[in-house]
Amino acid sequence: MTDATTDAATPSYEEARAELVEVVRQLEAGGTTLEESLALWERGERLATLCQDWIDGARERLEAVLGQGDED
Questions:
Q1: 52: helix, strand or coil
Q2: Rounded to an integer, what distance in angstroms lies between the CA atom of residue 2 and that of residue 48?
Q3: 16 and which of 9, 11, 30, 70 could share a cystine (Cβ 3.0–4.6 Å)?
Q4: The model scores a pTM over 0.85
Q5: Is the pLDDT at 28 greater than 50, yes or no?
Q6: Is residue 41 over pLDDT 50?
Q7: How far apart are CA 11 and CA 49, in angstroms?
Q8: In angstroms, rounded to a whole number, what is the distance separating the alpha carbons of residues 47 and 52?
Q9: What is the greatest pairwise CA distance in the chain?
Q10: Subunit structure of this entry (predicted)?
Q11: Who contacts 5 (Cβ-Cβ below 8 Å, separation ≥6)?
């Protein structure tokens, strides 16, 4: 897992995913200015990256555990 996903100020996967869902909902609903839409888009990109980092970290941990089982 990267440092970004272990920082105490970093949201959990579930928190980041929930916020990402809300960002997408707001963008799909429209009614925001161009500046607001761009800010939402940028936040969504950061949240999506964070979620992917969490998933990649979990995958690495699983592969490490499964790899240990093969060595035993």
A1: helix
A2: 15
A3: 11
A4: no
A5: yes
A6: yes
A7: 12
A8: 9
A9: 59
A10: Heterooligomer composed of large and small subunits.
A11: 50, 53, 54, 57
Contact predicate 5/49, CB 8 Å: no
- Amino acid occupying residue 1: M
Distance CA 65, CA 8 (A): 25
The vertex-36 CA angle with 32 and 23, nearest 5°, equals 85
CB atoms within 10 A of CB 70: 6
For the record, the structure tokens of 35 come out as: 């500046």
The CATH number of the structural domain formed by 11-71 is 1.10.287
Q: Would you mind telling me the total number of residues written for the chain in this entry? A: 72
- Residue recorded with tokens 């970093």: 10
- Distance (Å, whole) CA 72 – CA 70: 6
